[in-house]
């Protein structure tokens, strides 16, 4: 009878030791892996672009001059970042690629609101610049296992990007407008 008690005690101690965290492999695939502190900073730099959430502040709209127009279309990098990500596959088994990318941008809205107060800026006019970006590309889905095959399809993706910005409002005095414009643009 004592050998049964001894075996039960050994089994109980083994279960408690495994459940208490003494054994690092008790979690299986959920075993925590130590990560260096710089990994989070690197991922932040890679995926969070500095100017994505910023609104530029431009010189005032001068009276007697034509109103400014939206000339800066979204760059190819901005458009590709706004597109949905390519589905992640298994290298050598199933992969998806985008080839022959052509981007066409069209200006949809170009209007300036009347002046109003913006916190941290003051009196300003909001200039709405809305762009429609049409992305034409060839989607290639490739599989090498169990037998090599691939599929090519022509795809079209439409993305809408807003590039709104503010124009300072300093009143209707032309001399003040000219002075503020010179101060902001340095010429």
Question: What does it look like?
Answer:
This protein is of the alpha+beta class. The protein has a domain of 128 residues. Helix content is 25%, strand content 34%. The chain contains 4 helices and 6 strands, in the order ααβαβββββα. Strands 1, 2, 3, 4, 5 and 6 form a 6-stranded mixed sheet that branches. It starts with a helix and ends with a helix.
Beta percentage is: 25-35%
Number of helices: 4
User: Can you summarize the main beta sheet?
Assistant: 6 strands, mixed
Mass-distribution shape = elongated
Low-confidence stretches: none
The H/E string reads: HHEHEEEEEH
End-to-end separation: 99 Å
User: How many strands in all?
Assistant: 6
Query: Helical amount among residues, as a percent range?
Result: 25-40%
Radius of gyration: 30 Å
**Structural class of the secondary elements?**
alpha+beta
Query: For the residues shown, what is the average pLDDT?
Result: 85
Organism: Gemmata obscuriglobus
Protein name: Lipoprotein
């Amino acid at each position: 009878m004592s050998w049964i008690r001894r075996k039960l005690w050994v089994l109980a101690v083994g279960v408690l030791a495994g459940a208490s965290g003494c054994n690092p492999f008790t979690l299986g695939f959920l075993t925590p892996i130590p990560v260096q502190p710089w990994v989070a900073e690197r991922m932040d730099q890679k995926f969070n672009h500095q100017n994505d959430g910023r609104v530029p502040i431009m010189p005032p709209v001068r009276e007697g001059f034509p109103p400014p127009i939206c000339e800066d279309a979204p760059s190819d990098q901005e458009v590709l970042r706004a597109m949905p990500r390519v589905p992640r596959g298994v290298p050598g088994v199933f992969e998806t690629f985008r080839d022959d990318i052509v981007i066409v941008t069209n200006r949809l809205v170009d209007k300036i609101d009347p002046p109003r107060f913006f916190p941290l800026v003051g009196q300003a006019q909001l200039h709405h610049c809305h762009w429609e970006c049409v992305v034409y590309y060839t989607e290639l889905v490739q599989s090498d296992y169990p037998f090599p095959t691939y599929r090519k399809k022509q795809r079209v993706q439409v993305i809408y990007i807003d590039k709104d910005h503010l124009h300072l409002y300093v009143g209707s005095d032309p001399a003040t407008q000219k002075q503020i414009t010179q101060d902001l643009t340095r010429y």
